[in-house]
Amino acid sequence: MRRLPSLPALRAFEAAGRHLSFRRAAAELLVTPSAISHQVQRLEQELGTALFVRKTRAIALTPAGERYLDGVRRAFDLLAEETRAVRAPERAVLRVSLLASFATHWLVPRLGRFAAAHPEIELRLEPSNALVDIGGGEADLAIRYGTGGWPEVEATLLLADRIAPVVSPALLDRGPPIAAPADLLRHTLLLSYAREPIEWPAWSAAHGFDLARARTLMLHDYNIVLEAALAGQGVAMGRHALIGEKLRGGALVEPLGGPPFAPPGLGYWLVTR
User: Fold this and answer.
1) Residues 192, 224: contact at Cβ < 8 Å?
2) Residue 175: is its pLDDT beyond 70?
3) By three-state DSSP, how is residue 201 classified?
4) Which GO molecular function entries does the Swiss-Prot or TrEMBL record give (predicted)?
5) Three-state DSSP state, 273
6) What mean pLDDT is reported for the chain?
7) Which helix (H) or strand (E) holds 190?
8) How confident is residue 57, by pLDDT bands cut at 50, 70 and 90?
9) Are residues 105 and 63 in the same domain?
10) Per-residue burial over 57-73, b = 16 or more CB atoms within 10 Å of its CB, e = otherwise
């Protein structure tokens, strides 16, 4: 059986020999200088030889200490190299800032496929309505909703969207009926907060609807807008990229019919800088 000194004693000696200071070695190893001195003394006793010459305010290696330090360093380097060789590769962390609604209704159902295709990546989703500073390290990339053209960022259209007013069947049953855009004025329009509102203004302009006369309810997040619409609290602007299942299942309906409206450039954008 090999008789080897303890690992804490070897680490204390290597750090002290490298720094030629018990104090700096202690700071590196997060212990006290007296603990370093004690470990070195135990090592010297075990080896039966002095490794350091202690002076009033400094230490120096003895010839035996210089030789032993070289060997300990080579042993530590070999141990570190073999550890790296057998250690499982670390997973890269990808921080994605995105709207909670996009995460809930589009991205999360697809996460299983992403994880299977990229097991080396740890995905961290960080919901936010703000246009984060990618260059400043707030996230690695962001997914935002709009028509692009944001200043001082690079954005690529990831998923184009189409929009149309949607309501719950219960609201239609309760009335008043919605047969034309003007009938929307008899209901509450559900809006999600945005620095530059796009959906309702764009749809209204395309359909001759006077949005200024509408009764509105401003909600913080599009997830809340959808929940309010499902509960029959008003009319939401349906984002087809997110609500396909709810339309197919009948939880939401488009009372005006016709094809959904596709404003130029509207959709989810990948912001990379």
Assistant:
1) yes
2) yes
3) helix
4) DNA-binding transcription factor activity; sequence-specific DNA binding
5) coil
6) 91
7) strand 188-192
8) confident
9) no
10) eebebeeebeebbeebe
